[in-house]
Design brief:
Blueprint: H1 7-27, H2 36-48, E1 53-61, E2 64-70, H3 79-83, H4 87-108, H5 114-125, H6 136-141, E3 142-148, H7 150-153, H8 155-164, H9 170-177, E4 181-182, H10 185-200, H11 205-218, E5 222-224, E6 227-228, E7 243-251
Parallel strand pairs: 4-7, 5-7
Antiparallel strand pairs: 1-2, 1-3, 2-7, 5-6
Length: 267
């Protein structure tokens, strides 16, 4: 399916992306002392380049493992980058996303999204109530952070999501899953709030229908685990490809044949 889209040149490209990352961080309206650690880690990851994705692995039972895949590259494949040096810092980092979601919903329709906006006010008052947070106990249960090829390992999960959630036919979902791409690290950090605005507004249908269309214009084909861009099937699939913010697949003998089985991961 058609998609539209020197060592010295490589180094220059990484340098240029790094400078852009520093500029975006310094100009961000959400920049506060609470997010300085995150921004520093982001810039360090940019300097190192992005050469893969990060699988955070949990053992669920005997020879039964789950991998949560983030498109953060090798430099970000560690607990501190993803979840901060403390749970409190992690909660503050995720609060930045809540502010971004709030601003976006205000731009879409404050009247239609009033209930969702009210719920975000409660999260701002107590960041520990943020529904986006991974529980401390879950973070403590992760047994490994591993650099992998996310589009390859997440292919089956993508196909399953497109069939069950986006209602694509099995042949089309299979074809689209082969086109899965990773988001760049800057896009992951700076655009993930768009997909999360759609996720967080699901309980308010009138708001969510408007948000879905607005998000699709800016971030078409997004995936956040089993959540997908529901406007994606209505777009020209020859022009865009699915891309993930987070995917989950399983592996180990207990999961052989599972519809969301990782491609070839093993412990």
């Amino acid at each position: 399916m058609e998609r539209v889209g020197g060592v010295n040149i490589l180094y220059f490209g990484k340098w240029l992306v790094s400078i852009l990352g520093l500029y975006l961080a310094s100009c961000s309206p959400f920049m506060t002392p609470a997010t300085e650690e995150t921004e520093t880690l982001l810039n360090l990851a940019l300097l190192a380049g992005v050469d893969g994705d990060c699988a955070v692995i949990t053992q669920q039972a005997v020879d039964d493992y789950k991998a949560e895949i983030y498109p953060v590259g090798s430099a970000g494949c560690n607990r501190t980058f993803l979840f901060g040096s403390s749970y409190n810092n992690y909660a503050k980092k995720e609060l930045r996303t809540i502010y971004q979601v709030e601003s976006f919903l205000q731009s879409v329709s404050p009247s239609s999204c009033s209930a969702t906006l009210t719920s975000l006010q409660a999260v701002k008052a107590d960041p520990m109530t943020n529904p986006l947070l991974v529980a401390q106990a879950t973070i403590d249960s992760y047994i490994e952070y591993r650099v992998i090829d996310g589009p390859q390992q997440g292919k089956k999960a993508t196909e399953s999501n497109l069939i069950t959630t986006a209602s694509l036919s099995a042949p089309l979902a299979n074809s689209e899953s082969k086109e899965l791409i990773r988001m760049s690290l800057p896009d992951y950090e700076n655009l993930r709030y768009l997909a999360l605005a759609s996720v967080l507004s699901e309980s308010e249908p009138g708001c969510n229908s408007l948000v879905r269309v607005a998000v699709n214009r800016l971030l078409p084909g997004w995936m956040y685990n089993e959540k997908v861009d529901l406007e994606y099937p209505n777009t020209d699939l020859n022009q865009i490809a699915p891309r993930f913010l987070q995917l989950t697949c399983v592996f180990g003998s207990a999961n052989t044949g599972d519809s969301v089985e990782c491609d070839n991961l093993q412990i």
